[in-house]
Amino acid sequence: MGRHSCCYKQKLRKGLWSPDEDEKLLNYITNHGHGCWSSVPKLAGLQRCGKSCRLRWINYLRPDLKRGPFSQHEEDLIIELHAVLGNRWSQIAAQLPGRTDNEIKNLWNSCIKKKLRQKGIDPNTHKPVSVSGDADNDSEKQLPPTSTSHRSNDNSSDEAIETPLPIITSSNSSSQIYSPTQEFFRFQTTTAGSHRASELVEFLSFHNLNYVSEIPNPNPNSLCFNQTSHLLPPPSIPLKPTWEGTDFTAAAATASGGSSFFDGGNFPWGLPECGKTEKLNPTAIREDKKWSEIMENPFMMGNTTGEQNQESQSQNESMYVENLSTAAETEFITESGWQSQTQRQQAQASSDAVYNKHLHTLTVSFGHTL
DNA sequence: AAACAAGACAACCGCAGCCAG
DNA sequence: CCTGGCTGCGGTTGTCTTGTT
After folding, report:
1. Distances (CA, A) of A77 to A10, A14, A86, A151, A289
2. Helix %, strand %, coil % for chain A, to 5?
3. How far is CA A28 from CA A34, A48, A53, A277, in A?
4. Buried-most residue among A55, A75, A272, A276 (CB within 10 A)?
5. How far is CA A152 from CA A97, A158, A188, in A?
6. What is chain A's pLDDT, residue by residue, as a tens digit (370 residues)?
7. Gap from A264 CA to B3 C1', in Å?
8. Measured distance CA(A53)–CA(A44) in Å, rounded
9. Chain B bases near protein Cβ (<7 Å)
10. Which nucleotides on chain C have any atom < 7 A from a protein Cβ?
11. Helical H runs in chain A?
12. Does residue A294 sit in helix, strand or coil?
């Protein structure tokens, strides 16, 4: 198994993408869908390999990306999921709509790992680091429970896999063993009703998430519930994406079924001030600023909660579709993209006329009836 | 103000799995 | 069954930005 064939080709550009390249790729996929990635660069007029195009689309151009800093809730969720799934970034990303595995991986390696270590928690085992042990050595030698190894040589890295923890389900007293992953998804898909919180606490305790108490939370009683109340995706996804690996369909189904954690509208996607501070500075916009970051994102619109959230959801969806449509059809990024929320709302109101047109474009582009 | 370090982010690399021929 | 093309994934590296001295 050698390198991908496209990598052999000459004259292929590498490195950072230019706005022009982004536009070409975006226009092509918007109009035709990606189809076979290996043919995309040729058809789109790009001097890139298909692999690079795919990566660029998935990590950067995809219209459903939620750009901006991770909220504290998202970070907590990532930690929790990592405790269960290990370094399966794609699976973790699947639980965080709008986030990419690459993004999460980067966050983990650059930020979360450090935070956990500062709290005396081994980021790989999610257990307190022993005083006598060398934190770095310990943490780099162990991995969280892993049910299966995607790669045969995973263990050869500096993060050797720890023996998976057998899990006894909380739903019955039998000794049936689940892999952590199985248990996680079983839990996620079956929990419902008022007992969820307690189940969740129980579930998390199975994974020795003893770092939980270290994470600041104003309400200890709701600690686990709050921190995991976003285990499911947002209640509604405006588009059914065609890209792989993202369980939006299930997410939407879960939400529409009215049996998710979020029925009360209390899931906290997109708390803008949580976590890292927003670095957006209109005076220092890079030319190649991501349009998807600049585009309005319904899940980042504001701190809508509860009824607010539900009420504003359809509006947000409309805005989301409209905005991504606009971004897909118009030129790249201009400073006009940096609007205040009020300005954006005004713009939204005035753009109703073109909504249907954009909607049609999207329908064609994504092969999905909206 | 310049040099350096650290952090954040984007992209590449290599491998494995899937699947059609 | 075998082979090769393609895709997806995770690890790693490169580059740019920001902070510190």
Report:
1. 43, 34, 13, 24, 27
2. 55, 0, 45
3. 8, 14, 11, 34
4. A75
5. 28, 14, 28
6. 333 344 444 568 888 888 888 888 888 888 888 888 888 888 888 888 888 888 888 888 888 888 778 888 888 888 888 888 888 888 888 888 888 888 888 888 888 888 887 778 878 778 776 654 444 444 444 434 333 333 333 333 333 333 333 333 333 333 333 333 333 333 333 333 333 333 333 343 334 444 433 333 333 333 232 333 333 333 333 333 333 333 333 333 333 333 333 332 333 333 333 333 333 333 333 334 444 444 444 333 333 333 344 444 444 444 444 444 443 333 333 333 333 333 444 334 333 333 333 333 333 333 333 3
7. 54
8. 10
9. 7-17
10. 5-12, 15-18
11. 19-32, 40-44, 50-56, 72-85, 89-94, 101-107, 113-118, 135-141, 180-190, 196-206, 223-228, 248-256, 291-294, 306-329, 341-350, 352-366
12. helix
CA of A188 to C1' of C11 (A): 29
Residue A191 contacts residue A199 (beta carbons within 8 Å): yes
Tokens encoding A314? 């359809």
Q: How far is the CA of A61 from the C1' of C5 (A)?
A: 25
Q: Which of residues 39-78 of A touch strand C (CB under 7 A)?
A: 39, 50-51, 54-55
Domain boundaries, chain A: 19-59, 72-128
| Cβ(A34)–Cβ(A367) below 8 Å | no
CA of A106 to C1' of B5 (A): 19
Instruction: Report the C-alpha gap between A137 and A145 in whole angstroms.
Output: 18
Q: Nearest residue to B7 (CA, C1')? A: A110
CA–CA distance, A309 with A264 (Å, rounded to integer):
9
Separation in Å: B17 C1' and A131 CA: 42
Structure-token pair, residue A115: 């935070």
